[in-house]
Amino acid sequence: MNSNLHAGFLYCYHNLGFEVSGAARSYGVPLSQCIYDCHIGQLLVRSSNQPWAPSHQNAEATAYILCYLLVEAGYFVNLRKSQCSPSMFISFLGFICDSIQQAFLIPEEKKVKLKVLRENILASKTVTLKTLQQSAGKAVSFSLAIAGCKLYLREIFKAVAGLVRNSKAAAKVTGLLQSELEYWRFLDDWMNCLPWRSERHVAVTLYYDASK
Fold this sequence. Notes:
Blueprint: H1 2-26, E1 31-34, E2 37-40, H2 56-72, E3 89-92, E4 95-98, E5 103-105, H3 108-122, E6 126-127, H4 129-140, H5 154-164, E7 171-172, H6 175-183
């Protein structure tokens, strides 16, 4: 019962947040939301005479608009945990949000944690279910910065699925599993970034025949 109440609370909270986000976007506020975390961009002022340019004044207006909408919707905004002062670099969902490169960057400490865990696995002949799940979880968490990273975790997921059926066993670190783990070494020296995907809305109309 408690889990159902918790799920229901998150559902209501998340959908109420979407209503606030929609209202903010109607004022020209670019916004990304994940449950109770929000990242907002500079207010977009439509003008044919002046091109878009970074504006501290418009960014402050954005913070004011969103705080006003949240308070009106019944939220209790924790100002001490919020960053209301406009900045090009902020921490968002554990990553560095770089508004100049328009990309999420992986903090160095996250890379080091994955590296230590990965190399410990590669130095062993076998790996347990818990350790594999930890490595997969850390790698999947990078999906915000590395789109499609799950495509390079298929052998790990396959090994996890096999160990779930027999949790007392251990997977051998050989063959494709070893190659996939070694592939993630690219992250140790990777200094590039993948830019945000541009938002696009397409309306599609489907016509179908419901008869036999």
